[in-house]
Automatic annotation (TrEMBL):
Keyword presence, Cell membrane: yes
Broad class of where this protein is predominantly found: membrane
GO terms for cellular component: plasma membrane
Superkingdom classification of source: Eukaryota
Membrane-related topology note: Multi-pass membrane protein
Protein localization: Cell membrane; Membrane
Domain (Anoctamin dimerisation): residue spans on this chain: 81-287
Keywords: Cell membrane, Glycoprotein, Membrane, Transmembrane, Transmembrane helix
Matching InterPro entries: Anoct_dimer, Anoctamin, Anoctamin_TM
Span of domain Anoctamin transmembrane: 290-864
The protein, known as: Anoctamin
Amino acid sequence: MDDDDEFFDTISVASGASRRRFDNKDYLSLSRNTVYQSAVDLENMELTRLDHSENGNSQNKVSRNRDVKTYKQWRDRRWRYFTNGELCVDFVLAYDKEGKPEDVAKREHFEANLQHVGLILEKEESQRIHFVKIHVPREVLCQYAEILKLRLPIRYDENLGEIENVFYSTLNKILDCLRVRLDPKIFPPKKYRLTAEFNREKNYLFDVDDPDFFNEAVRITVASYILEREKFGIEDQEKGVHRLISEGIYKAAYPLHDGDLHEKNSKRVKLLKHWAQVSKCVKYQPLDEVKEYFGIKFALYFAWLGFYTHMLIPASLVGILCLVYAATTLPQDTLCKDLCNSDIIMCPRCDKVCDYWKLSEGCLYAKIQHFVDNPATIFFAVFMSFWSILYLELWKRYSAGITHRWGLTGFDLKAEPPRPEYLIRLADAKKRKLNVITNLNEPAVSFWKVKLPSIILSFTLALLWVFIAVFVVFGVVIYRMSLITSEVLYEDKITYRIYILPITAAIINLVCILILNIFYQRLAVWLTEMELQRTQTEYDDSLALKIYMFQFVNYYSSIFYIAFLKGQFVGYPAKYNRIFGFRQEECNPGGCLMELTIQLAIIMIGKQAINAVAEMVVPLLTKMYNSVKVSMGIQEAPPDQIGIISCNQWTEDYKLLDLQSQSLFSEYLEMVLQYGFVTIFVTAFPLAPLFALINNILEMRLDAKKFIKYFRRPVPQRVTNIGVWFPIMGILGRISVVSNAFIIAFSSHFIPKLVYMMEVNPDHTEDGFLDSTLAYFDTADFEDGTAPENPSMNVSICRYAEYRNPPNVTNGIKYKRPLIYWHILAARLAFVVAYQNLVTFVVTAVEWTIPDIPRKLNDQIKREAYKTNETIIKYETERARLKHRKRKNRDSVLSGETVYYDANGGFHTSDLANTSRGDHIENS
């Protein structure tokens, strides 16, 4: 009786029904959920029958429970094991059976090499897609664990405490009071164990006989390494499963999830229910469990995202306090009171069709702007400048602790192989170059003839598209300038021009940004491919540089325009500076800071909301589409995922999306762009850290849910840091210092107020400040054809927001810059220099006083190295002593002496000349 027959007979016995036999093909045509649910129903039927049957004694119940247990064991074995139910599946290859003869030859050669190195393979056929199940035996694990220099736990029983930095330890104590620790019953705390690089010659250090010594992450890592190293052709470069996938010989290569989404005891379901849920957002992340399941690269991303989110909490609180301060000081704000009670007549906002207007009409706008332009904003800008540097320094300390806990101290990448796409494109290249590290002849391209021109062309096109993004911003500006004179806005011009126009322009800009992102992503990939980057690291760095350059200009250019350029070169009513015949945009009398806030809020919040929806909807729709194709066997050209009708984990995972090595790229990019919003322009939007905090709480859990439900399990990768993103954030921190200094100096009223109180007002108060910022203009001096055609009021003098001489000036030229303007400009530049130098000094002091590795952690690393050496010396001494005993015993036997061992392990000899040699050997 085979396994399938035994399985269905077991179900029949458990259900109390008549014995019936199922054909294996009929069983395979059922879905996994159907089989599982049928078994559950049968179990419930049997339990009901036993409860109501007169013969339902304890013996029947025991028999029934035994049969059900047998079924469950068979089901779990069938789901993730070989046919014999003994060997687990560590990796899976999928291919289309309708391949070309040369592809079949390469595949067979590749699989033969895999078996030659010791892997165990088993094939399973389906309608169209065939699978190769791979198991890594323990001997192969030992061999390649040594080659990969994996750090594995050694036999050392002393409990070495884990070192955390002071900030995180304090934060943990506070959060413990809020009961946010993980449930120890669900995620038992793991004891920190001493690790060392695995060495077969020192296997006495490791508990190799433990069945769980090589966990799933190690097995997957070894299998993936072998798959990338084995050849499928004659040439040295014809190797690696990823190149076979690129050529279409294999459809996919992936490790398995440890169960579907219905198995309660699997790690996948445990992480899904107790980590990847928004309702668990107040709980700690089980980073050790994430590391075991997804690998260090993914765990480090979630660790960084969690740390960044925690650091946003104090920034959010300070931002909220700034708004509370603004709300409490609003009734006493002199500028708002003067503006709301003013009867000043302002000059028209546009030529001919615009009328004069009263300054008091912008009262509400001035009150709203007070929330982002007040003394607390200055404090918040300084605070965020220090916060950005402190965050980076504390992250370096925290990451040093977790990477040490995960056994990555001293880890470094060695001899990275060429990219499969690189080898394919250079398959016919005649030029070869010896790689001194791998000692292989690799195809090479001429730097001067091929590589340099491609790099120049790549970055030239990249700069061209950067200018296209700038032109899009320019187009939005023209749109805003043209709408100022639109007849549609006449009736309620103040409401439209102050609120509706900035909001609609920001929404249009956001739509343009999202459209350009699609082109930028494809353009960046195409340009990077054209550069012929040899390794995946070089490729990823070049791609990251281009995409971030695109995104930086795309998202920030409009904000930089409003912050630093809008309203700075407008001119005055007698001589406006024009673009395509349109007057440039002017800031309101209260300044452009409020409009900057509107632009920043719409782009930042809109981007985060759209990305959050897209990240969940797109994988879900893709998975549904793949499932439909798989279940219905739809054949398309080219066929990618068709004709699979089976019931096991490898077919279920084949329906999922492939988790590429660059899958985290978009996640890091989104967060780093958000970090730019939070730091560079936080002066204009004090609530930016709060919205970032809310987004990240959702992002962290939704990302986890997405990776668990809709993607295949990734191959664990060892990394020691978050890569190129850390230096990018460091650069953003430096830019934020300069940006906030210029925003405070040129976009707010802080410096003009300060100069007015010190030089102009003898009482050193703000009284009269608003009037000093408005210049006078004689309506008789309008340019021809620019004066209002149908003015509603008779005005001879109007006012405009500028520092210029009045028309009736006695000592000077009318409408020219007065001396106070130059004093304010000098004060603004002096403030920028002083602010930047002060922050730079403090930042340098912080970087110098806070070491990258905590002192206690550094001491622990040295202590562990010492303990490891002591353990090795201890075992080596015992082995040497044992060998010496055996050798001495053998020599003594041959020389006629007997050996006596004392309690301390020492030995003594005595002459056995009178003892027969046969008796001596027998006694020995």
